[in-house]
UniProtKB/TrEMBL annotation:
Pfam families: HTH_1, LysR_substrate. It comes from Bradyrhizobium barranii. InterPro entries: HTH-type_LysR_regulators (IPR050950), LysR_HTH_N (IPR000847), LysR_subst-bd (IPR005119), WH-like_DNA-bd_sf (IPR036388), WH_DNA-bd_sf (IPR036390). This is LysR family transcriptional regulator. Keywords: DNA-binding, Transcription, Transcription regulation. Residues 75-277 form the LysR substrate-binding domain. The keyword Nuclease does not apply. Belongs to the LysR transcriptional regulatory family.
Length: 299
């Protein structure tokens, strides 16, 4: 309540009065008040908030359209993306988007899974591009493709001479871990088929640091997406290999609040991202066995 008061520049009592009025009109509680434990959203409140977000985004789209018709401003789109995506493929898809719709002011917020959900809930972004790792977005999501895990290995490692590796073989080396919330947990659960977890030799939240650390011999890493399009390619000291184990593959998803009533600028961007991966094909965006490649668009 205090944060809302500061953001909106009105008193907390006014915010509470507005909430109580809304609750009276809808005949249900939006928040459950718990003494000494704050408040939490009720199921009815979840539906109220979802409807409110749709209304606010529709209002933003109306203002965007009016400004464009009046020549008052350049159209703008705000995208939240899983941190590594900003360097791996987002610029290439946005280049296609601009070629299709014309000049657009673009804002890209790159963050971990928790940050993306916060930005999405606060209306800081129009849509989010991420993996379906952790709690799912309750709003509408478009599933693009599965992206299986693969191994990143130094060419000086004996494993680099093989056409593929197993989780058991990777566990014999120190693990260079992409230590982002929920992502790190997903990566470590891939080793649950073994009796013991791998030794973590290096933790970082930066994709580029992962590549450099593996090249320098700190260990091996397990990642999902290689560089695509114009992204900076791997150095000569690195090799990526498919993993032979049957592991769960996260799905690349695009979340928005519009459901079936997507405005054109959102619909076109979603179409462009889906077309980008379709054009690349499984061999172009995934390091996978031939068997797995055949299922990557079964989403």
């Amino acid at each position: 309540m205090h944060a809302a008061s500061v953001s909106l520049r009105i008193s907390q009592s006014s915010i509470l009065a507005a909430i109580e009025l809304a609750e009276t009109e809808m005949g249900a509680r939006i928040f459950e008040r718990r003494p000494s434990r704050g408040v939490r959203v009720t199921p009815a409140g979840e539906r109220f908030i979802c409807a409110a977000r749709s209304m606010l985004t529709a209002d933003a789209e109306f203002k965007r359209t009016i400004a464009r018709l009046g020549g008052l401003s350049t159209p703008a789109i705000r995208i939240g993306c899983f941190n590594p995506f900003g360097a791996l493929f987002i610029p290439d898809t946005l280049k296609r988007y601009i070629e299709r719709v014309g000049p657009v002011e673009i804002s890209v917020l790159e963050g971990d899974q928790l940050q993306l959900r916060e930005w999405f809930a606060n209306g800081a972004v129009d849509l989010v591009v991420t993996y379906d790792i952790g709690p799912h977005f309750k709003e509408n999501t478009t599933r693009v493709c599965k992206v299986p895990a693969h191994a990143l290995i130094s060419r000086s490692d004996q494993l680099a001479r093989q056409p593929a590796v197993s989780i058991a073989e990777l566990a014999t080396r120190p693990l260079v871990l992409l230590d982002l919330p929920q992502t790190a947990l997903y990566l470590l659960t891939l080793f649950d088929v073994l009796a013991t977890q791998p030794t973590i030799g290096f933790r970082t939240r930066n994709y580029e640091t992962i590549r450099t650390s593996v090249a320098c011999g700190f260990g091996v890493s397990v990642l999902n997406m290689p560089p695509l399009g114009h992204a900076s390619p791997d150095g000569t000291e690195l090799i990526r290999l498919p993993i032979t184990d049957d592991l769960p593959a996260p799905t690349l998803v695009i979340a928005d609040v519009y459901g079936s009533n997507k405005p054109e600028y959102v619909r076109v961007l979603i179409d462009v991202i889906r077309e980008f991966f379709r054009d690349l094909g499984p061999h172009g965006f995934a390091i996978a066995t031939l068997k797995n490649e055949e299922t990557l668009f079964d989403v």
